[in-house]
């Protein structure tokens, strides 16, 4: 199948770019929101080596049945507090078996808008529509949980 292009998310959060950058890069924050709805990511399941070439790995756990979903990425660019770029590779140990061996690039940009921050995420290219749809739902769930986490901190 041909690649399906890119996925783009934009959200505005009531936080500074610095705080959102920390939320996206520190296990103590990631554990509160990383993963789609219906999953949790224990702090012990998060690896962050925040440098170009460094690892970013998580093991998300299904709240319903305890199934584990592994995400493995490698940082390409780290520019605090405005930009993160990492590659997301599928190794067949996640729910997207059709994408085994395929790699996408995730670009996160943080831009101050008054006392809020616009977070823009672009990921792609995707190998097929199920993979695109799965990531779309996953990011939506994560960003919904991030918004709730940010609101709790106020």
What report would you give on this structure?
The structure is a single chain. The protein is 24% helix and 38% strand. It is α+β, with helices and mostly antiparallel strands and 154 residues long. It is built from three helices and eight strands. The chain has one domain: START domain (Alpha-D-Glucose-1,6-Bisphosphate, Chain A, domain 4). Strands 1, 2, 3, 4, 5, 6, 7 and 8 form an eight-stranded antiparallel β-sheet that branches. The mean pLDDT is 89. A hairpin with a 2-residue loop joins strand 7 and strand 8.
Characteristics:
154 residues; single chain; Alpha-D-Glucose-1,6-Bisphosphate, Chain A, domain 4; 3 helices; alpha+beta; 24% helix; eight-stranded antiparallel β-sheet
Secondary structure layout plus pairing:
Blueprint (H helix, E strand, L loop, with lengths): L6 E7 L3 H9 L1 H4 L8 E2 L5 E3 L6 E8 L5 E12 L3 E7 L13 E11 L2 E9 L4 H24 L2
Antiparallel strand pairs: 1-8, 2-4, 3-4, 4-5, 5-6, 6-7, 7-8
Give the CATH H-level superfamily: START domain
Oligomer: single chain
Q: Mean of the pLDDT scores?
A: 89
How far from one another are the termini?
A: 46 Å
The first-level CATH class name: Alpha Beta
Order of helices and strands: EHHEEEEEEEH
Low-confidence stretches: none
Provide the β-strand percentage band: 35-45%
CATH topology: Alpha-D-Glucose-1,6-Bisphosphate, Chain A, domain 4
Rg, Å, rounded: 15 Å
| CATH architectural grouping | 2-Layer Sandwich
Helix content: 10-25%
Overall number of domains: 1
- Number of helical runs? 3
Shape: globular
Structural class: alpha+beta
Describe the biggest sheet?
8 strands, antiparallel
